Amino acid sequence: MLKKRIIPCLLLRNESLVKTVKFKKYKYVGDPANTCRIFNELEVDELAILDILASKDNKEPNYEILKEIANECFMPLSYGGGIRTITSAEDIFSIGFEKIILNSYTFEKPDIINQLSKNYGSQSIIIAIDVRKNIFQKYFVYSLSGKEKKNIKPIDWAKEVEDRGAGEILLTSIDNEGTWSGIDLNLTKIIADAVQIPVIAHGGAGTLKHIEDAIKIARASAVALGSMVVFQKKGMGVLVNFPDEKDLRGIIE
Taking the domain 5-252, which CATH number applies? Predict the structure, then answer.
């Protein structure tokens, strides 16, 4: 059995890192390069960066900040936000990022998944799927940082992006994101059972038990952490950290 992965997921807003709650209010976390340097020193295995404004504001990725991050980090890096062309993807790969994360633009031009997978390999392509429940507890996909509801079910979109060549899915529960209340296990299991590619569960993790449940109950291949790795505890100040390897050993192996 492959080792499960625990991935810090950092949110970039303009030139700062922030942490949101349910994709809304945000709190300043720190400088991107400095924060990533700490994760490098903590010897995390992988790091994800998401620009939460680039696609919504129709902006290009901030290549200068990405260069600074790549220069500080020696672990595999993934980046999402504002990637709308093959050229943008190529530029990010050339900076030193191993994977790109696509979301909003794939609804406008889903063929970009096929093209990028063909050019760079499916292992380099992560599709982010952001999901929110309606008042009837039905799941729907959203784009543009949770602003635009799409007329497609998460399970159908997950299957389509897999068929188009995606190598992984970053699955975020908007309702749980930033709440410390736990991963949406039902949503995660639905998607993990529907596809053959790895599913990264994201949104709501606040304890080691939440991580364990996402992996052992919901069958996630990885868990992406936000609040847990940038705050001391819920309601407390910023402290960049990462769970001890000994505490994770029984969960990820």
Answer: 3.20.20.70
